[in-house]
Amino acid sequence: MGKTAIQTNGLGKRYGSLWALENCDIAVPEGSISALVGPNGAGKSTLLKLLVGLSSATAGSSEVLGQLPRQRADFLQDIGYLAQEVPLYKGLTANDHIAMGRHLNRRWDESFIRERLTQLGIPFDRPVGKLSGGQRSQVALALALAKKPKLLLLDEPVAALDPLARHDFLASLAQAATEGLTVVMSSHLLADLERVSDHVIVLASGKTQLCDNLEAIVGEHRLLVGPREHAKNLGDSITIIHETDTAKQSTLLVRLAPGATMPPDWQRHNPNIEEIILAYMGQAQEGGKQ
User: Fold this and answer.
1) Residue 125 DSSP class
2) CA distance 141 to 161
């Protein structure tokens, strides 16, 4: 196993009596593209703000690139962060933002951002407030990458992009990750994330439901179809994550412990990552086992 870019233990954030994030335990490998998924209110944005030092934890601990998250230059120089709100100054042009980036970041890659925005046909001399929503998102994404961070945290970065622009940006992320960049990206678009991600974090009801390599997650889950009366007798090595029943038949999404023996009287299918993620989100909403 390689080095870990992010490690949290029991991380939690409470607002009054409400826990926005609770008992969050994750480990993100260096050089991975990690998909952070979950329903609205699951704690995704809260987690990202804690990791970048924009919010302080109520409980637990976190380590990012070997440091405690904090709003200090020696920490932030290695972190790229793009919030949902697309943090740009609407009255300034792309050229103005590039000039600010040049002065604020010691590893600033101006040739990269100029080449990228030129390829996208985005004007450098127009106030960003007069650009389309998709163009503003592209400018913000290019600014984050031009900083040459070691870790890039993205909160719903492709929400405002059309399918072609999403495809182009995700391809550039995949390329950046091959050069050592670690990416954590939240999104509701599971199909897009599956195309480029090799690691998955699932949050639901403010808690961690899954955190592992994508292939490992898919490999240890199965869809079983069989007699309803046998659904409760699968053994301790098989955990039911989600169950759908008819009068005589059950369809189960299950997680297998190492060395688990599959029941012979059940049909077996390999689920895709979207089916697995939706099952865990549904389990959390129904108050199932965490």
Assistant:
1) S
2) 11
Say how far apart CA 178 and CA 11 lie, in whole Å: 29
Q: Which tens digit of pLDDT belongs to each residue from 204-221?
A: 888 899 999 999 999 999
Residue tagged 């049909």 (tokens): 267
Q: Percent helix, strand and coil across the chain, each rounded to 5? A: 35, 30, 35
Query: Alpha-carbon distance 92 to 128, whole Å?
Result: 6
Quick one: CA dihedral 59, 63, 69, 72, positive or negative?
Answer: positive
**pLDDT tens, residue by residue, 8-50:** 999 999 999 999 999 999 999 999 999 999 888 889 999 999 9
70 CB neighbour count, 10 Å cutoff = 13
Q: What is the DSSP letter of 234?
A: S
Q: Would you list the domain boundaries of the chain?
A: 4-216, 220-285
Report the top-level CATH class of 4-216. alpha beta
- Structure-token pair, residue 132: 């389309």
